[in-house]
Design a protein that fits this description.
- This protein has one helix and three strands.
- It is of the alpha+beta class.
- The radius of gyration is 12 Å and the shape is globular.
Length: about 70
């Protein structure tokens, strides 16, 4: 899936984390969510999974955009 196929719900730049524009929340066409951000090392995730730490204000922004 390409980034262009996603609806970006948060952030104010290009979506490139190296330009201080993370974390970001995206919505897929099927209604699920993709999170982009710094990888967390809080614990070791199972193979094929990763952990991303999301600040509360980022989730609030995504909920606001969705009207929740």
């Amino acid at each position: 899936m390409a980034r262009e196929e996603l609806t970006r719900l948060t952030g104010n730049g290009s979506g490139n984390c190296n330009k201080n524009d993370c974390p970001n929340v995206y919505r897929t066409g099927s209604g699920s969510f993709i999170v982009q951000g710094d990888v967390s090392d809080a614990f070791t995730a199972p193979d094929g999974e990763g952990l991303v730490e999301i600040p509360e204000e980022t989730l609030r922004e995504a909920f606001r955009v969705l009207g929740w």
